Glutamate racemase (Bifidobacterium santillanense), 264 residues
Amino acid sequence: MASTAPIGVFDSGLGGISVVRQLAKDMPHERVLYFGDSANAPYGVKSPDQVQRLSFDIVERFVREGVKAVVIACNTATSAAVNELREAYDIPIIGMEPALKIACDRGDVPSDPHHIPQRVIVAATPLTLRERKFAKLMERFDSDNEIFKEPCPDLVEIVESGRLGDHDLVMRTLHGYFDQYDLDRIDSVVLGCTHFVFYRDYFRELLPERAAVIDGNEGTVRHLGVVLESLGGLAPEDATGSVELANSDPSERIAALSRELLAA
Ligand code: DGL
């Protein structure tokens, strides 16, 4: 693997830019090619077959561009396609899943020998929450914790349509999803969709202080670093990193929105 080759990062649209932000911060020597599939977003309400086909098209494009690894910066595409992609390509393919482990591990307090059961809401797309991959993840934690699955497809649409700054709309939408819970009794909310990471401040406004807001971006980037290092594929320390943003929607609106989210 050429360590100077770029890393391909993709998502159904603009959500994966939240992962690119983390990547650029933690691995500043890497060249990143980002592809957002906004023309086909959202993925979360499509069938697994459709999402798999779209994911293969994007990875094929990255391979033509000579990437050294691919990050699926999308929990939904990971659920639908990560195994098949890994079988088809021999470059590292890093996937994402809702960071449920981090949320449940908060119940392991060193001063207390017993696990304190955690009440966790996992906010993700309908497809992620329906797929077998998530069912298996839940199985590991739901005997010791109380886990609630909350599909939030409108949160994807709000980002894609550039309305993330509309405070009233966002808070109304969040209340629509979360008012059914007694939030004072919730220990954490897992942001199981990369679009939702952009809502962190809104979730803080919604939730009592004691509830944590957890996402998997940092862990994903850390995992990418470990994999590349083990293969001797980390960019040299004298290399200057860069981020190139591409999108299946060629409009200036999407290009401007992408730049704005990257800089946020
Ligand atoms: N950002 C994606 C995820 O992490 C999916 C959003 C969508 O297209 O539905 O799941």
Q: What stands out?
A: The mean pLDDT is 97. The beta strands are 7-11, 31-36, 69-72, 93-94, 119-124, 146-151, 188-191, 212-215, 242-247.
